[in-house]
Design goal:
heterodimer, A: mainly beta, 11 strands, about 55% strand, globular, B: mainly beta, 7-stranded mixed β-sheet, about 0% helix
């Protein structure tokens, strides 16, 4: 059974600081996603990582994937208040599953001035 | 940019009643999904739908639940005999391939 663990679950940061959110998963997978969710809102796709060593960057966020370690990271550079949200990683089951994703519990990020 | 549309945005129902949650996926997408998120918790997969049939379902998706694509555009989730623990945000998603998903804005279901 595929399990996805994120840590930390809560993260309080000061503006301008850097931090990393970690996502570990238990079995092999061919795709990993990062989503952002604002309170009461839907899931906004941030990154899709499909291969070992994949690195993607958008603004102050950078995501990477190590399939051998079954680990993805979401790195936040010079945080700003607008990044406050809950961030989820989600992993797709490998090998023919029709697309269902297993989500981590989410990391609630709060960026303070 | 194309969107997945869900209606209603909020539904309040009495315990034991049936509800139908509606979704209009992106028109050229082939795969359709329902997920739910109990308040403050993680997002959980319910069911995936492809080629007019269920392709995968989770343990949560028992006989109380059913899905339908009645007219080629709508995708519905029916919950029979609702229970208090069915209260959650229900998200519909669609994708063209297995690698890119668009989620709808969700329906908040409150069972009282």
């Amino acid at each position: 059974e595929l399990k996805v663990e994120q840590n930390p679950l809560f993260l309080s940061m000061q503006e301008g600081k850097n931090y990393t959110i970690y996502c570990n998963y238990s079995t092999t997978s061919d795709r990993l996603y990062w989503y952002r969710q604002d309170p009461g809102k839907s899931l906004e796709s941030l990154f899709v990582l499909l291969s070992n060593g994949a690195v993607k960057q958008e603004g102050r966020l950078m995501a990477s994937l190590d399939t051998k370690a079954r680990l993805s990271t979401l790195h936040i550079t010079a945080a700003v208040h607008d990044l406050s949200a809950t961030y989820f990683c989600a992993v797709g089951s490998e090998g023919g599953s029709q697309g269902n994703l297993i989500f981590g519990k989410g990391t609630k990020l709060s960026v303070k001035p | 940019e194309p969107e997945v549309t869900q209606t209603p945005s909020h539904q309040v129902t009495q315990m034991g009643q049936e509800v139908i949650l509606r979704c209009v996926p992106i028109s050229n997408h082939l795969y359709f999904y329902w997920y739910r998120q109990i308040l403050g918790q993680k997002v959980e997969f319910l069911v995936s739908f492809y080629n007019n049939e269920i392709s995968e379902k989770s343990e949560i998706f028992d006989d109380q639940f059913s899905v339908e694509r009645p007219d080629g555009s709508n995708f519905t989730l029916k919950i029979r005999s609702t229970k208090l623990e069915d209260s959650a945000m229900y998200f519909c998603a669609s994708s063209m391939t297995l690698y890119g998903y668009t989620f709808g804005s969700g329906t908040r279901l409150t069972v009282v």
